[in-house]
Amino acid sequence: MNTEQLRSLALQPNASNSKGQLLDPQRLLDATDGKIDREALEALAGQSILNPRQFDRRTVVALAQLAALLETRNVEMEKPLDGKIAITAFFEASTRTRLSFESALLRLDGKVLSVPDGQVTGIAKGESLADIGEMFNTYGDIVIMRHPDTNSIEEIQKNLQRPLINAGNGSGHHPTQALIDWYALLKWRPELCRPDCPPERRIHLGIIGTPGSMRAVKSFLRLSLMFAGAVSKITLVSEMADPVGLDLTEPIEQSPIPIEVTNDVQKVLKELDVVYVNSIAFLGDSYRNLDGRYKLELASDLKPGAVVMHPLARNDELSEDLDDTDHNLYFAQAAGAVFVRQALLVSVLQRLNRISDL
Amino acid sequence: MNTEQLRSLALQPNASNSKGQLLDPQRLLDATDGKIDREALEALAGQSILNPRQFDRRTVVALAQLAALLETRNVEMEKPLDGKIAITAFFEASTRTRLSFESALLRLDGKVLSVPDGQVTGIAKGESLADIGEMFNTYGDIVIMRHPDTNSIEEIQKNLQRPLINAGNGSGHHPTQALIDWYALLKWRPELCRPDCPPERRIHLGIIGTPGSMRAVKSFLRLSLMFAGAVSKITLVSEMADPVGLDLTEPIEQSPIPIEVTNDVQKVLKELDVVYVNSIAFLGDSYRNLDGRYKLELASDLKPGAVVMHPLARNDELSEDLDDTDHNLYFAQAAGAVFVRQALLVSVLQRLNRISDL
Amino acid sequence: MNTEQLRSLALQPNASNSKGQLLDPQRLLDATDGKIDREALEALAGQSILNPRQFDRRTVVALAQLAALLETRNVEMEKPLDGKIAITAFFEASTRTRLSFESALLRLDGKVLSVPDGQVTGIAKGESLADIGEMFNTYGDIVIMRHPDTNSIEEIQKNLQRPLINAGNGSGHHPTQALIDWYALLKWRPELCRPDCPPERRIHLGIIGTPGSMRAVKSFLRLSLMFAGAVSKITLVSEMADPVGLDLTEPIEQSPIPIEVTNDVQKVLKELDVVYVNSIAFLGDSYRNLDGRYKLELASDLKPGAVVMHPLARNDELSEDLDDTDHNLYFAQAAGAVFVRQALLVSVLQRLNRISDL
């Protein structure tokens, strides 16, 4: 890009990613002739968003399409979240996720009470999550929480009366990340949103990681199981004997999608249409990085046309030499995050009526 | 509550506490036939709020009633603090107090410059509070400060020309907490706001703690001394020989309210109408928890109809098994904090004229 | 000042400094008959502000005059930055600089995504600055970054497509501080903004410090070299053999301003019209304070009418006993910071048309 183009881009409200696949949200809207399932969105009013199992395919598609609408248009002037206050309570620091939610809120004229690092601030005086939930009742209209403990959701909900959005709870779930992942997939290949996706357009999905202990991967897998008409096969690449974990055993058994487990990434790589990789395994209180065998790079034997996904931040498992290629869907995936979170917030906070032409 | 009720509550702008006494702010307004002493509020214009001794009974009641008005109505649309910037400078971290002020500001369309933890950020380069006060002059319209040093108020005021709200200074004072405490008491028993409260409705107030070294307790006691027509007796429960400290010796001597000191909580407990407890003693640079003898719980010998107050956060001195009982006034107390701080900010920043029907 | 005056000041939107020189911004506007070089400001649209060398005298004067216009008027109601989001990404904490930018943004109705301390929050998971830049593309409209590494600018710009304002990069530059410094000088002596400043009004400028390793001093010196018609001589006071460093060797050689280096502050002090002092030398990863010989205080042999500048925060090198004297230009210098940053943000974000009478 030349300087003139860069400057013009820099002053657009909705800039996109800088490298890799550039996805056009309009294509996703066109896939259903611009119709968005408003009923599915309205059902989210006042709901807490805790676990991807509370969604169905219809809701995921509706949220992705609302996100696409928000991405194509400049709705700031309609101030859809005017007067609403969100508390971003990050007891486990994550600048990426926190800023993503806060950007979504500010863009729509919502307001933010920010707790960037609950571990180092005053909350550390030993206060219980139940008492913190009670405190939040009169401080804001919605709570967005990340916490290192899996049972933190249950604890804060003892007294919290406001809708709660789970932004990651220990080895539990990360439902908004999974929505973001599917938003990228649906923009990339809009036919996937149809229950009758043509067989030759269905995807063989590979997941490198251990869903049982990695919340982002677990939530992505859980949501993927809802797309039986779009996913022809799922292959889990993991060194663990049982990578799935208790949470997903039943949904996997009930899903018509065939699922295979292997620890040989080289054998399966060239068959995958989509490769989902993640760097971080949450094991108890510490993180563990994946080992070097699973590293993706330009030299990897990726299928032509295959795309790589990653919830970011990344470590060594995903080389920067893929950034400039069409395999790079992870930058487009990240670039969609703000719009998906906007779609969710507008639905939960009952402000759909503020979005004109919806 | 069923799901429908919870959802409806969650979308109300002014949710209340989840458990314990539910207080109706309208009753406090009715106690003076809806009339609020506007002159008393106007006298706060441009004033720093440093020490409860600068208030009188009349001002405390007026602020409580403005808080009640704000709690009963949805004044956000009037944007009373539009264009005003507050600096929340917490040199001692306190997420509860900081977010309470910030919520009060954002709800009324004020703006916030937040210093969540002055001890760990750049201010630590060794800058004096006097220089920090000078810096704040052009950054905001009002400064809300918490600091571990008692003399921090004096230091920052060397150059600061903006109104300063003391949100806790070492073992000094915490005047807004005391206002919040009395807001809860006045909502709970509105007759207490009258100079001629009937004798049988007056309260025997017990304070467990050491006002001399605990700023919240000290400020609450200081304010309580102004309510001679409402408080029949005050009993201090403390293991210290002189729990009161130099600050309050004179006001106590001048007050007509009889004051007793004991270290036997069991003996006095069943006579108290209101029991104020606090967990944290500020002794020099460290905190000290109260010992186990003073723990309040369901099994404690509380008088029927008595209420328990606590500025929160709590430790072991106040058991969660009281949460679901009518003794629990502490949740209602916390739920009033945002409205009291709104009332104060609107008065100090001279925006009373933005509140319609005042 | 009496209480009434203090209160009235406290409720003005644009309060000034409390001590030392009180500068009237109107005098700077009058110096060019109120005409501001709008073309120079428009050339900043969409530009990143990385290094003072990208400015020229004309642009510095235009920005200073826009700052003066903003300081004399109450433009908040025009909401010039309405709908714009800035990310303040401080990987090296600096409460002073961060709050100054954030105050500038909030006053003009812009919004802020704040990263108060990038070193202690989630970014620390090892994410590259290139990936962080990519993330910021969809989060905000402009990025304001401070970073301990000099090459951080280059790193984040690998993917960042939004304008970037350098708020200090290692031993590199701090261009907005230099603009603030010159804003104070031009308000103090408005003739300095003219290419034909009368010789007797030109200044002999002394800089105590090592521009090669101190970014604020380096940027101030770089900008000062553009004012050949206003600066009669520059004297660098430093204990280093070559205090200038590679960056500025060429601009100094090309400048018509005579430059002298000495390590004897006492000898030169009484000849200086302006003494610029700074406390902090950035040497690798650590800071080094200047030694005691360079301390300025009331007893120092300052020329009558001379002014002392300091970017603050200060340590022992600048005594508080100068605060109450007319030598104190540093408080006025700090008081102008918000307005200079406003002028820059309005220009870069293309909102000059929102400022009426410009």
TrEMBL record, chains A, B, C:
Stretches that traverse the bilayer: none
EC number: 2.1.3.2
Region (Disordered), start-end ranges: 1-24
Compositionally biased region (Polar residues): 1-20
Keywords of the record: Transferase
GO molecular function, one term: aspartate carbamoyltransferase activity
Class of the enzyme per the UniProt entry, highest EC level: transferase
Keyword Transferase included in the entry's annotation: yes
Pfam (any one): OTCace
Keyword Magnesium: no
Residue ranges constituting the Aspartate/ornithine carbamoyltransferase Asp/Orn-binding domain according to the UniProt record: 203-347
Residue intervals of the Aspartate/ornithine carbamoyltransferase carbamoyl-P binding domain: 48-185
Record SUPFAM superfamilies: Aspartate/ornithine carbamoyltransferase
GO biological process entries: 'de novo' UMP biosynthetic process; amino acid metabolic process
One GO cellular component term noted in the UniProt record for this chain: cytosol
Stated family: Belongs to the aspartate/ornithine carbamoyltransferase superfamily.
Protein name (database record): Aspartate carbamoyltransferase catalytic chain
Source species taxonomy: Bacteria, Pseudomonadati, Planctomycetota, Planctomycetia, Pirellulales
